[in-house]
Design goal:
Helix content: 40-55%
Number of strands: 20
C-alpha cells in the first residue's frame, strides 16, 4: 500500500511538472492572450455601431463571400454577439482586460499566484454589472445582455424591484469593502481633504502687509523683511506691478510631548501582615512583633512634585535633531518626546525610503550638535515602528528610594522577591522579581552608582520581606561597602558556624562559604525530593499546611541571597576555587531559593567568563569606559554612552531598558539598619552548613605506607625550589594534575609544606635537603 501511495504521489508530481510551462511557452501564450484581448476590445466597441447590420450574417458565417461591418469582420460580429447580446452586455469589456493582465503576467515572467483572485473578483464584477444594467432595461437591450435581463426577470418574480435593488446595493458594499477597503472614515477624510484644499485655493495665506516694504526712487526696488509662502500661492504683485517671488516655506514638524506619569505614594507600607491562624504554620511568629521599616526612614531627595517640563529645551533639542538629520538628507515625518528623570526619549518616524543604519551611524554627529554626553540611538525601538534618540536632560531629577518604595507598583507587586531599581525613561517605577531572574550580574566603572544599586536591591527586600523569609550572605572584599548591614546580623544575615563576623571580608573564607552554600543546596534538594515538590515555593506552601513532618528533617526554608560586591578581586586571588562553586550555584540553585547578585567594576572577559555569563541572563550595566566592556556585560553597545550617577541599562536576555537607579544615601541605610537592629532578634545569625575544606588536614593521608612512590622525589623538588605547588611537581616529575595534587596533600600531612592559601603557592616548612632527611628519618622510627 505504501509503495502504491508513493507511486501515485510521484505520478501526480510528474503530471504537475508536465503541465508547467517553460519560459518560451509562457512568452508565446502571453503574447497570444494580449493579441486576443486587443481583438475582443475592438470587436466589442465596433459591435455597438454595427450590430444591426451584422444580424443577418450570423447565420451565414461559413459563406466566404459574405462580409460583416464589424472591424474584425465575421469573427468580430460572432464573438461580440455572443458576449454582448447573449452574454453580459457592457460588462463583457472586463474579459479583454483580464486576458490582457494574464498575458502580461506570462509574457513578463511574473508570479501567477495572484491571478486567481483577479479572475474571481473580475467575474463577480461582470455578473453584478450585468444584473445592475439589466435592472434598468425595459426590454431586451444591449446594456446588460441576455443574462443580465433574464436574471433580473427571475429575481423580480420572487423579490420585486425593491428587493433586487437592495440586493444589488448590499453586494456592491461587499465588493467595495473587500476589494477597495471601503469605510465611512475614508469617505469623510476624502471630502475633508478636498474642502481644505479648496479653501486654500480661494484664500491664500499671506502675512501682514507691513512685511513688504517698497522704496520707489528712480527705479522701483523691493525690500522683503519676513515672509511666509506656500507652493500653491501665486506670486504677489506690489503697487508698482513688480512680481515678488517668495521662497518656499519648509514643512514644519510639530513636537508631540507625551504626558508625564506621576505616581502617588502609598502612605502605609503594604508588607505581608502577620496572621494568627493556628491552622497553618507561620514561620514569622517567632518574631511576631517585628515591625517593617517605615517610609520616614527614607529621605525625599530632589523635587517632590515630579518632573519639571522645560518646553524651551524640548523645542531646542527637537530643532537640532531635525536640522542634523536634514544636513544628511534624512527627512522626518513625525517626532515625539517622552520625558524621564534624567533622559528624554525622542521618537522619530523617518520618511519612506530612509535606511535605519544611516541614522544609527550619526550618533556622534547628533551628540556634537546637541553638545551633550550620553546620546544613545535605538534603531528601531523594539515593538514600535520608530527610532529612538535618548538625550540627557540639562537639569536631571533625582529618583529617591522613597519614591519607588512608596509607589503602588512596588507595594502591590505580587512577587516572591520584588526589587525596585528606579524609574524608566517614561517615569514609571521599574520593579522586577529576583526569583525569576534568577541571578543578577552588575558591572560599572568606579563611582557610577554600582554600590548604590546594591544598596537599593537590599533595601527593597528589607522593606518587603520578614526576617524569617529571607537571609543574606554578604561578601565585601573592600571591607567598607556592606559593613552598614552588620546591625541586622541576627535578623537577616547568614554565616558559617565558626565565623565571628557575618559579613565576609577575607577571600579565603569566601571559598568555604560558597562551598557551604553548595552543601545547603544539595540538602535542600534532598528535602524537595522527600516532599515530592519541584521548587521552594511549593515546598514552603506544603510545610505551612503542615503536610511535612519536622521529625523527618523538614523545616521552613528561607530564601538566601548571596551578594558579592567586588567579584574581580575574588577571581584574581582565588580563581577557579571561586568560579566553580558560583557556576554550580548559578546552574542549580534557582529552584531551592538561593539567588546570586554579583557586582564588579572590571567587566573584562577574564572576570566575567563564558560560564558566568551563561548562567546570569539578568544583567545591569552602569556607565563603563569602553564599548568592549559594554559588549562584555550586555552583549550590546550602549553602556559606554550612559551619563553616570545611577544611569543604567537592564536586560534579561531580550530588550535593553534604560533606568535611573534609585538613590539611597548612607545615612538612610544606617537609619534602616538601626530601626531593624533595635528590635527583638533571633539568638544568632542563620547558620549555614559546616564545610571542611581539603586544606584543613582532616582528609589528608597520614599513613606512610600509602605514600606515592615519587613522594621523596617530589619532596626534594619542593625543598630545593622553596615553592610548594602541584604545578611545579607536574613539570619537574612529568605527572598528571590529580597525582601531583595527592602528593601535595601527602607533603602537607608530613609537615613539609603549609596549608592551602588560595591561588598562592604553599609555604615550604623545610629549609634544605638535610632538614628533609632528618624529618623523614624521624617519621620512620
Amino acid at each position: 500500500m505504501a509503495k502504491k501511495r508513493r507511486k501515485s504521489k510521484a505520478a501526480v508530481t510528474q503530471k504537475k511538472a508536465s503541465f508547467k510551462l517553460s519560459k518560451k511557452n509562457k512568452i508565446i501564450l502571453g503574447s497570444f492572450l494580449i493579441v486576443l484581448s486587443i481583438a475582443l476590445f475592438f470587436s466589442f466597441i465596433s459591435y455597438y455601431f454595427t450590430w444591426q447590420a451584422d444580424q443577418s450574417l450570423l447565420t451565414e458565417f461559413r459563406d466566404r463571400n459574405a462580409e460583416a461591418a464589424n472591424l474584425l469582420n465575421k469573427f468580430g460580429a460572432a464573438i461580440s454577439h455572443f458576449f454582448m447580446y447573449q452574454g453580459f452586455g457592457l460588462a463583457s469589456f472586463v474579459f479583454p482586460i483580464l486576458l490582457a493582465v494574464t498575458g502580461l503576467y506570462l509574457f513578463l515572467g511574473l508570479a501567477t499566484k495572484n491571478l486567481w483572485s483577479k479572475w474571481i473578483w473580475g467575474l463577480l464584477g461582470v455578473i453584478w454589472v450585468s444584473i445592475a444594467l439589466g435592472f434598468f432595461a425595459t426590454e431586451r437591450p444591449l446594456l446588460g445582455g441576455l443574462i443580465g435581463y433574464e436574471m433580473n426577470d427571475f429575481l423580480q418574480d420572487y423579490a420585486g424591484k425593491i428587493g433586487v435593488l437592495l440586493l444589488l446595493v448590499f453586494t456592491l458594499i461587499i465588493i467595495l469593502v473587500r476589494l477597495f477597503n471601503f469605510s465611512p472614515e475614508a469617505i469623510g477624510n476624502y471630502f475633508r481633504t478636498k474642502r481644505d484644499s479648496f479653501k486654500k485655493e480661494i484664500t491664500p495665506e499671506i502675512l501682514d502687509e507691513s512685511s513688504i516694504e517698497l522704496a520707489l526712487e528712480d527705479e522701483p526696488e523691493v525690500k522683503i523683511d519676513t515672509y511666509t509662502h506656500k507652493k500653491d500661492i501665486p506670486p504677489l504683485r506690489n503697487e508698482a506691478g513688480l512680481d515678488v517671488n517668495l521662497p518656499e516655506e519648509e514643512p514644519k514638524i510639530d513636537l508631540e510631548v507625551s504626558k508625564v506619569s506621576v505616581e502617588k505614594e502609598e502612605k502605609d507600607i503594604k508588607a505581608d501582615k502577620l496572621v494568627k491562624d493556628f491552622g497553618e504554620f507561620d514561620p514569622r511568629l517567632e518574631l511576631g512583633k517585628y515591625k517593617f521599616p517605615t517610609l520616614d526612614l527614607l529621605d525625599q531627595h530632589g523635587v517632590t512634585g515630579g518632573i519639571t517640563i522645560n518646553q524651551e529645551e524640548l523645542e531646542e533639542n527637537k530643532n537640532k535633531i531635525v536640522n542634523t538629520l536634514k544636513n544628511y538628507k534624512i527627512g522626518i515625518a513625525q517626532i515625539k518626546a517622552t520625558i524621564g528623570p534624567t533622559v528624554t526619549l525622542y521618537e522619530i518616524v523617518p520618511e519612506a525610503g530612509i535606511r535605519i543604519s544611516k541614522i544609527k551611524n550619526l550618533e556622534d554627529d547628533i551628540a556634537l550638535s546637541l553638545a551633550a554626553l550620553g546620546i544613545r540611538i535605538i534603531a528601531p525601538i523594539p515593538g514600535k515602528g520608530t527610532i529612538g534618540i535618548e538625550v540627557p536632560n540639562k537639569n536631571a531629577t533625582i529618583v529617591s528610594m522613597r519614591s519607588v518604595i512608596a509607589s503602588k507598583k512596588f507595594q502591590n507587586a505580587e512577587m516572591q522577591l520584588p526589587i525596585a531599581f528606579g524609574k524608566t525613561i517614561s517615569n514609571e517605577t521599574f520593579v522586577v522579581d529576583l526569583a525569576k531572574m534568577p541571578h543578577l550580574l552588575m558591572a560599572g566603572a568606579t563611582g557610577q552608582g554600582k554600590s548604590v544599586g546594591l544598596n537599593a536591591v537590599i533595601t527593597s527586600l528589607l522593606y518587603k520581606k520578614h526576617p524569617a523569609e529571607i537571609k543574606f550572605v554578604l561578601v565585601d572584599p573592600k571591607k567598607v561597602e556592606l559593613t552598614l548591614f552588620n546591625k541586622i546580623e541576627r535578623h537577616f544575615l547568614a554565616k558559617l558556624p565558626d565565623s565571628e563576623e557575618a559579613i565576609i571580608t577575607d577571600n579565603t573564607k569566601v571559598i568555604n562559604t560558597l562551598n557551604s552554600l553548595c552543601i545547603e543546596m544539595d540538602n535542600r534538594y534532598e528535602l524537595l525530593k522527600g516532599a515530592m515538590v519541584r521548587n521552594i515555593k511549593e515546598y514552603n506552601t506544603k510545610f505551612k499546611a503542615r503536610k511535612l513532618n519536622p521529625n523527618d528533617g523538614h523545616k521552613f526554608l528561607p530564601y538566601i541571597v548571596l551578594v558579592i560586591d567586588e567579584f574581580a578581586d575574588l577571581i584574581m586571588t582565588a580563581g577557579k576555587e571561586v568560579e566553580t562553586p558560583i557556576a554550580r550555584l548559578a546552574q542549580l540553585a534557582r529552584a531551592i531559593g538561593i539567588h546570586l547578585i554579583i557586582a564588579t567594576q572590571r567587566p573584562s572577559v577574564n572576570v566575567i567568563t563564558g560560564i558566568i555569563k551563561a548562567n546570569f541572563p539578568a544583567r545591569i550595566a552602569f556607565r563603563v569606559t569602553s564599548k568592549i566592556d559594554s559588549r562584555t556585560i550586555l552583549d550590546a553597545q550602549g553602556a559606554d554612552q550612559l551619563i553616570g550617577k545611577g544611569d543604567m541599562l537592564y536586560t534579561q536576555g531580550n530588550d535593553v531598558t534604560r533606568i535611573q537607579c534609585a538613590f539611597v544615601d548612607t545615612p538612610e541605610v544606617e537609619k534602616i539598619t538601626e530601626y531593624i537592629g533595635s528590635q527583638r532578634a533571633y539568638p544568632s545569625a542563620h547558620e549555614l552548613p559546616e564545610y571542611i575544606g581539603e586544606d584543613s588536614g582532616t582528609s589528608l593521608d597520614y599513613d606512610i605506607s600509602d605514600r606515592d612512590k615519587l613522594f621523596r622525589d617530589a619532596a626534594e623538588v619542593v625543598v630545593i625550589a622553596q615553592q610548594g605547588s602541584a604545578s611545579l611537581i607536574q613539570r619537574k616529575l612529568k605527572l598528571g594534575y590529580n597525582r601531583a595534587g595527592r602528593i601535595i596533600d601527602q607533603l602537607e600531612a608530613a609537615g613539609i609544606v603549609g596549608p592551602f592559601e588560595g591561588s598562592k603557592a604553599r609555604q615550604v616548612l623545610v629549609v634544605d635537603i638535610f632538614a628533609l632527611d632528618q624529618l623523614l628519618q624521624n617519621e620512620s622510627k
